[in-house]
Amino acid sequence: MLVLGNGGHAVGRSGHSAAADEVSTPPRQFPRGIAGVRAMVDVGVERGVPVLACLDGSGVDENALADDAAHVRAWQELAVAQNLVRATGDAPGLGLEVGSRIPLRTYSVWGFALLASPTLREAAAVGLRYLELTFTMVGIHLQEDGDEVRLVLDDGFVPQPVRHFFVEREMANIRTILDTILGRPFTPLRLDLRFPRPEGPAPYEAFADAPIAFGAPRNAIVTLAAVLEQSLPQADRHTMQVCERECGLLLARRAHTEFAARVRELLMQWPDGIPDMGAAAAALHVSTRTLHRRLAVEGTSYRRLVDGARHARAVEMLATLGLGVDQIARRLGYADAAAFIRAFRRWTGATPGAYRTSAPTRPH
């Protein structure tokens, strides 16, 4: 079995072991264009959710929605998704509706690289190699297994309350991208989804021409391996190579400037509570003074990032772990439950108990 990971390189074949973390690493939390947030807000408004309610706590200015040059952080997009899912009751098909509204052109040079690729295989390799230039919140890798090929969406790094939503969103967006670069509708062999079949009719029109296997071991778009060898109608190898070089340069520039994203990711994944600045600096191999200075250059502070991480982790703990308020307060480093409750009310306008009662639940 051949596997292409998020870097777009082969990392395993039949008879050879490929380390799981080589194909399951989440996309790094670089800034992304506003189009993903705009699509969520548009769908929210159509479903009766006010714009400001969609953007609540995200730090995204309403005026930025009309600015195609605006960028947001991954955590901001995640906050908008949490607002949308909570306000709509996590309706089945919500993510599909959002994902179908993000056209290939919003991806700029990454999209042009795919469009100009000679074959679908080469488009997949380029797309996965520079996946960090997209809006995806899930890990994505390609598996070839005999006559079948699976584009697998790993949702293990996505907070549980919005896991279902983002799997749907990315699948619908992938379908939209494939339709565009193929120049015709793409028909998969089947769609594998980890979550259970919805009780009522679900709006899966985007994949109505393919069978859907609910409760599958993985989330995947499955098709015949031969499809990868199809020539693309707008193929231009020179253009693809120029665009691919631009993708590489863009990633390199971002890697040198997005220090706050690394700190935020560290805070979200810290195994025991929230580290103090000294511990965080040591984990990032910089001094405390350097950590403070680099965050200031990017317009933020360690205290602000800790506050955001506590908010996100508190919401996830309330939705998935069944912990009491005292336990969550201790895990997040608060002196007592009262301090945590005050902070939670500031973030959400509700107490932890009220939030837990109204939040929709999803299976892990």
UniProtKB/TrEMBL annotation:
Record bears the keyword Thylakoid: no
Alphabetically ordered keywords of this record: DNA-binding, Transcription, Transcription regulation
Domain HTH araC/xylS-type: 261-358
SMART domains, per the entry: HTH_ARAC
Region (Disordered): 1-27
Residue ranges with Gly residues bias: 1-10
One Pfam family from the record: HTH_18
Domain of life: Bacteria
Residue ranges the record marks as coiled coil: none
Protein name: AraC family transcriptional regulator
Organism, as annotated: Streptomyces maoxianensis
